[in-house]
């Protein structure tokens, strides 16, 4: 019987620190089997509920068919549990196929809804995408978590890696128990800076202050996506307002540790992970401050709407045409570039998915994104993250 339970940080880490035993690996696989089919079925139903002319769009129809394909690969496991290594290996291959199949969901949906905007209310688009993309975050996370645990498990590494060697790693699957936000910011600064310099010929500097040595437990890829999108906005606003000599200031503040000595619940992370978290903060707030002139009062209410962009419609369409003509791979590559969804971003602006999707990533584990605009001066964006397992 499939469950619709939402995956939590404790559930994702409850199978222990790598290398996992065979039994722990089977437990991870069966846990995922209790979640994924019902989540995929809900997405299929949501797509079916769209207006016929919308779901008939070739891009949106492609996403629908991808979900049907992924669900069909999981249905053979409906009446059985994974109890041997052969089944677990086959299941992990199914998870890898699922991740690959849905890797371009965001840019494909972006193109589809852009083409169908005459036939569906913008509020309905935002409502659908908010639920769909938030669910996608969780689905992809639990699939990638098992793949990572599989690759580092005892049965699949031939005993070549000892538990002591794994203790030197701060990772439990895709979760980093010693993540340093300042290092993520610097990595994203270099990436966005190259894009900015390519487009404008200049790049602002980034100054990190506050508590740059803060360590927390989180998913690095989630934080990288959020910070990249926020720095894109800050860099673009700074340069286009003629303030490229003004630094973008990133302040990192660790939340005070209010934990007590009460033992963790039985379904929480394992003892070794609890010990690893003793030096981690229970949460972090990152403020990104720019001197880019702020956001006009007319624009501010729309920044959380999917497909909202400060680029004109013609500019967005021209961007898709020019990028696709150079890539030879249609509009999908163009959308990858403008939305930053596949790590191949080459633009500082796009189809308006960056900010709301970044907020969805932050809120997935209880965080959030808030924007404070001082019109005529600049913008402060506050990214709040909750440390996993705390």
Any idea what the radius of gyration is? 22 Å
Q: Mind summarizing the main beta sheet? A: 5 strands, mixed
Total beta strands? 8
Going by helix content, strand content and strand pairing, the class is: alpha+beta
Q: Give the fraction of residues assigned to helices.
A: 40-55%
Q: SSE string, helix = H, strand = E? A: HHHHHHHHHEEHEEHEHEHHHEE
Give the strand order, joined by hyphens, for the main sheet.
Answer: 3-5-6-8-7
Amino-to-carboxy terminus distance: 30 Å
Please state the average pLDDT score: 79
Which residues sit in consecutive blocks of at least 5 with pLDDT less than 50? 1-6, 261-278, 310-351
- Tally of contiguous helical segments: 15
Shape: globular
What is the gist of this entry?
The protein has 390 residues and is an alpha+beta fold. The protein has helices at 9-13, 22-33, 36-48, 52-55, 58-74, 85-101, 105-115, 122-151, 163-167, 181-200, 220-240, 271-276, 313-327, 330-339, 354-363, and strands at 171-172, 175-179, 206-210, 216-218, 248-254, 283-290, 368-374, 378-386. The chain is 50% helix and 12% strand.
């Amino acid at each position: 019987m499939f469950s619709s339970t939402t995956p939590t940080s404790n559930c994702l880490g409850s199978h222990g620190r790598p290398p996992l035993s065979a039994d722990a690996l089977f437990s991870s696989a069966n846990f995922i089997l209790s979640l994924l089919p019902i989540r995929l079925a809900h997405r299929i139903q949501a797509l079916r509920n769209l207006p016929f002319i919308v779901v008939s769009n070739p891009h949106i129809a492609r996403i629908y068919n991808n979900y049907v394909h992924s669900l069909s690969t999981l249905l053979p496991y409906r009446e059985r549990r994974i109890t041997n290594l052969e089944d677990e290996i086959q299941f992990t291959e199914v998870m890898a196929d699922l991740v690959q199949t849905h890797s371009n969901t965001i840019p494909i949906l972006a193109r589809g809804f852009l083409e169908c905007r005459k036939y569906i209310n913008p509020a309905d688009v935002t409502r659908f995408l908010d639920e769909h993309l938030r669910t996608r975050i969780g689905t992809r996370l639990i699939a990638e978590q098992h793949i990572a645990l599989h690759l580092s498990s005892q049965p699949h590494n031939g005993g070549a890696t000892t538990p002591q060697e794994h203790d030197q790693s701060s990772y439990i699957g895709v979760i980093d128990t010693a993540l340093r936000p300042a290092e993520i910011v610097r990595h994203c600064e270099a990436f966005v800076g190259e894009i900015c310099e390519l487009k404008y010929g200049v790049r602002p500097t980034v100054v990190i202050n506050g508590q740059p040595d803060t360590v927390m437990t989180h998913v690095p890829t989630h934080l990288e996506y959020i910070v990249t999108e926020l720095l894109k906005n800050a860099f673009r606003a700074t340069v286009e307002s003629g303030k490229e000599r003004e630094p973008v200031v990133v302040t990192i503040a660790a939340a005070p540790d209010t934990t007590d000595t009460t033992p963790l619940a039985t379904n929480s992370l394992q003892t070794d992970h609890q010990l690893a978290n003793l030096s981690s903060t229970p949460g972090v707030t990152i403020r990104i401050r720019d001197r880019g002139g702020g956001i006009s009062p007319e624009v501010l209410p729309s920044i959380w709407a999917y497909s909202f962009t400060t680029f004109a419609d013609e500019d967005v369409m021209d961007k898709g045409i020019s990028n696709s003509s150079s890539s030879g791979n249609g509009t999908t590559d163009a959308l990858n570039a403008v939305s930053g969804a596949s790590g191949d971003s080459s633009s500082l602006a796009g189809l308006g998915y960056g900010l709301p999707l970044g907020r969805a990533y932050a809120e997935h584990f209880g965080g959030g994104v808030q924007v404070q605009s001082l019109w005529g001066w600049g913008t402060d964006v506050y990214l709040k993250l909750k440390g996993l397992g705390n």
